[in-house]
Amino acid sequence: MDLLPAQEAAKIYHTNYVRNSRAIGVMWAVFTICFVIITMVVFIQPFWIGDSVDTPQAGYFGLFHYCIGNALTSELTCRGSVLDFGSIPSPAFRTAMFFVGTSMLLIVGTMVCFSLFFFCNAGNVYKICAWMQLASGVLMVMGCMIYPDGWDAPEVKRMCGQRTDKYSLGNCTVRWAYILAIISILDALLLAFLSFTLGNRQDKLLPEDFEVEGAENP
To answer: b/e map of 190-212 (b: 16 or more CB within 10 Å)?
Structure first.
């Protein structure tokens, strides 16, 4: 009779432990989906850098697509395609596109791994996703660091002025997609940390002292 309260406490603790883990897991999955959307927007949108009131030409640049204004007309001339490396104005832009694109594919792969929860151990799936998210964050860091190395391209100088050089934008400004890419790095690191934590919790849902006590006292 004296063991009943301890067994009941173990059941209550275990129930709350599982419920909290599942709630945090759902939150992690929702934030992962949001992160997928963010990385896709960062990769596609051509608003990494852009003109200002002091630039010779209007326009904006992304990882592969860019538009520059015509000196005679106010129309923008756009070029650049992810399938045509020759249309990308700088080798640094091409390299940054590769890293950011791979980062995007990794995080999309993380979302695809959600289906593994139905077939595999949840702790192992969380850890696989954690490594993928961590690698995605590292690749995004490399893309963001390499991208400014291409600011000395003739097309960028045409828009931003001759004072523009590597890691110096001259009269141009950083646009929202570049800032979002930097923020996504922090998102990836936080999601990876949360995923590692969830994986470790899944490995040990019920504390050993409760398991041993329940086994010895049926």
So the answer is: ebbebbbebbebbeeeeeeebee
Amino acid at 150: G
CA distance 146 to 148: 6
pLDDT tens digits for 141-172?
Answer: 999 999 999 999 999 998 998 889 999 998 89
**pLDDT tens, 19-50?**
666 778 888 899 999 999 999 999 999 999 99
Whole-number average pLDDT of the chain: 84
